[in-house]
Structure formats: C-alpha cells, structure tokens
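cache lookup: miss for this entity combination. No prior model stored, computing from scratch. Input as submitted by user K.M.:
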Amino acid sequence: MNRSIRQLLSITLVLLLTGTPIFAQRGGGARTSVNRSGSVNRNVNVNSNRNVNVNVHHDVDVHHSYYYGGCCYHNTAAVVATTAIVTAAVIGTRVYALPPACSVVIVNGLTYQQCGSSWYQPQFVGTTTTYVVVAAPR
Amino acid sequence: MSRRLFCSVVVLSFSLSLAAQSSPAPKRADIDPGAMATLNKMGAYLRSLKAFEVKSVQTTDDVLDNGQTIQSDAVVDLLAVRPNRLRVEIKGDDKHRLFFYDGKSFTVFAQLVNYYATVPAPPTIGELVDKLDEKYAIDMPLVDLFMWGTPQSSAEKEITSAIDVGPSAVEGTSCEQYAFHQEGLDWQIWIQQGDYPLPRKLILTTLTDDARPRHSQVLTWNLAPSFNDAAFTFDPPQGAEKIAIAEVTASASNDKK
C-alpha cells in the first residue's frame, strides 16, 4: 500500500513540477483524457493557494466517469485506458476504471473487486474513486 | 543606528528592484478603497452568519493541449452551521459526491458507486478545510466563503488592482460589480447591495494559461435554513461499502484499514 501512495505522490509531483500529461503513456490513444489533464493552471478560488491541487484532482476525475456508461466522450477514454490497464495489472498500480466483468468480493471485511485473475481494492484519492491492484487476498 | 538604517535602505531597494523585475509593481493608485472596503464588509458579514445554505451553479473551463477550452458544469449545495457542521452535495458532469461533517468525523460518499470513506475530523470547519486539503487532497467547494478576510486568505495581500465597475443585477437582485487583479488571476465579484452584502456571482480568469480558462459561480442564498443534526451525519445506505482514502503523506502508519 505504501507503494501505491508513493506512486500517487510521484504522479502528483510530476504534475506539480512539470504539468506533463502523464496519462499519455498510460492511456495510449486516449486523447480525451490526455488533453484534459493538461489543465494545470486553473483557479477555482481566490483566497488560498489551492490551485494546483484542484487541477491534479480534476485530471483524475475525468477517468472516473466510466460508470455513466452512456455517452460518448468520457466513456471512450475510459475504455481505452482500461485496455491498457488489463494488460498491465501490476500490483500496486492505481487505475481509474475497472476492466469489464468484475465482481465485488468481501474478504475479511474489506471490499475488493475481482476481475478475472486480478484483484483491485477501491480507494478514494481526493474525491475520486480509484482502484489499486493488489495481490489476491485469498 | 546609522548602520541599521543603511541596512534597511539596502534591503528596501533590493526588494523594490525585485518587485520591479517580477510583474508590474502594484500601484496603490490602482486600488479603489471603496472596492476593498466592500470586500472586507462582505467577509465580515459572511463570518457573522451562524448558519446558511448556499447553492452554486458553476462552470469550469478545462484546457486541451491545443489551447481549446472545454466547459464543465456543476451544482454545489452547501449547508454550513458554525462552527462545526457541514453538508455538501456536488453534482457535476462526471461525478456526484456528498460530504458530511458533524464536528467529529468527515465522510465522503460516492453515491453512484456506493462507496464511502470516513475519517476523524478536527473541531471546526476552518480546520477541516485545511486538513482535507493537506492530508487527503480534497478541495472543499466554495472554500472562499469561509476564507474572506481571515488570516489564511491571500487575496487582500495579493490584490494589485481593484475597480468598482458599477451596479449590475444578478438574477434580479441588485448588486455592485467589482473587478480585481492579482498575479496570474483576474476575478470579478458581484456583491449584493443593501444590508446583506452577500457574494452573488464570482468569475475567475486564470492568466497563467494562454487560453485564459474561467471558473464561474452564481450563488443563491438561504440565511434561515432548516435542518436537524441528522443532516450532518452519514447513515450508510443499503449496500454501501466503506473504503480507504489515500493520504497525501507517505508514512508507514497511513493506510490502516
């Protein structure tokens, strides 16, 4: 789990330091997500220096919209990203959408999503739901 | 004494030259004292409110790599009771979240996926806002409402230009429109005229991006909200699953489930 936090931190750092659209590598052809994560300078409040954080979150948010399932643009991005993720499924990786056909499994009171042979543990990052690839809990 | 004076002169001229190098130096002449006074009056008034409910219809621009802006919409409904009750609903294009704060714990609930996370919370809304930002990377929407005129607020120090634009109506309410400039940010605020100096509209324009993305809020106020304590405490619905929330700091004790 520390590993995933470190990963989150490094993602955050990369965004803070360079504004690099990191999802470019991850999502492959997911143009929409790549583009939207470019919004590094967006102020949504006047009084405090929270601007950078706001942006980091929003980059992530876009990927989360998979559960709407319906329309167009967000959905495409999620599907493309997912494809890349299924291939990877490296333990400790944090993803923003699950691959298809997962089922909820509770092990020792903790919620997991089992997707084929991969196990994911849901976790909030800010207000965004993410899934961390974990070793099979049983 | 004279040496001290010399030092101060050196320091002063050094800082002046620094200020001259970075961005146009603020000229106090650009600041309308009336605009600043109204801003402060609004801040003091907001801080005097014991309970309020405010609905914000807001838009936010994202910038694509090619410089094109894409607007997204959200509606935020925030109920606050000072010093330690807060309930927030955020309905956006791509997410729906509820926040609950009862002075002891804070819960974020993602309704569509039926996940929630609860963490211990500090005793006041102000401390909560800071903790959520620093520890969990959660941004409280409409955080400005709690910040105007507080020591944590950076706006007043950073404003380099303040203009009273003149009267303007927001959804039929008479307001006075003001425009402010600070480094990297232009913003306009519409403050209700009369005895209730409430912010009714806010537009932020980010200047550090060539696309100049905007964020806007139109606020509707209820200064006599009805509520009970249950409004601020999360009662998990059927099937809701408790999950962890990532902390921003990396330390071994962090991720206990």
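stored under new cache key. The first helix of chain B runs from residue 2 to 21.
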